[in-house]
Each structure stands twice: as C-alpha cells, then as structure tokens.
Amino acid sequence: MDIKRRKKVASTNDWARAYAAKGGILPKAFLADEQTKGRGTRGNSWTSPPGWTYLSIAFAPPTKEATDLPLLVAHVVRNTLENTAIGDYWVKPPNDVYHGEDKVAGVLVEQTKDALVIGIGIDRAPDGLADEVVAAIEELYARWRDAP
Hints:
Layout: E1 3-9, H1 12-21, E2 28-35, E3 53-59, H2 69-84, E4 89-92, E5 96-99, E6 102-111, E7 116-122, H3 129-146
C-alpha cells in the first residue's frame, strides 16, 4: 500500500478523511512525524510530539459497522511491537497498547460516507514499524471486511 508522508499535520485522520472526501484512491496510508491537533477516542486529545509515529489508513467504506475494529487493531499493533521491539506489550480494551504501566499506542477508528479511517499513534516506535503496521492492518482489514 502506498504511504503518503509529511513532517507535520494537524491530524493524520483528518488528512486521510479529506483525501477520501476528494475522491482519492483507497486504500491509502498517511504518516506524519508530528501532529498539532491529534485526538483519541471520545474527543480526548492525543499528545503528539515530534518523532513519534502518527499513522492513519483509509479504506473504502465497509458495509458493516466497525465497532470491533479498534480492539482488533490494538492487538495487531501489540503483536507488531512485540516482533520489533524489546519487552512485553499488552492491550487495554478497547483500543490502547501498554508496555508495563506505560501507554505506548492508541487507536482511533472513524467511519464516514467516504472512508473507514484507522488512526494509530505509537510512542517512540522503532524505525520501519509504520510499514509493518500498514501491511498487518491491510491484511486484518481484508479478513474483517470479508467475515460474516
């Protein structure tokens, strides 16, 4: 999957949603080094300092609600972190990944008429992690979309 990259954006989810609303080709991933207006679930802000991983992946809108996707995506992020970083990671439902007592990643899934956008913020991610997460999420989405 193609990954569009920028140094700084307001929000990768907003960037992905705007791209889809303008008729952009999906799926597409959006990666930034910094967000100025990152957000989490229930309208919570997401601290987004430079150098962490801010990633959103936009897919064509599915025919079903994505209520179970945040937890599934969190597990994919945990698995990817465990395969590439040192230590044990765990998922705190519905959408967070922890390393010990520290929250290290969060997931925000948004559905619009134009796209389903999966946003992921990862603190201090290893180099190359975004590419691995994109590939794993693309595979997860295909299985989820086609499941009854």
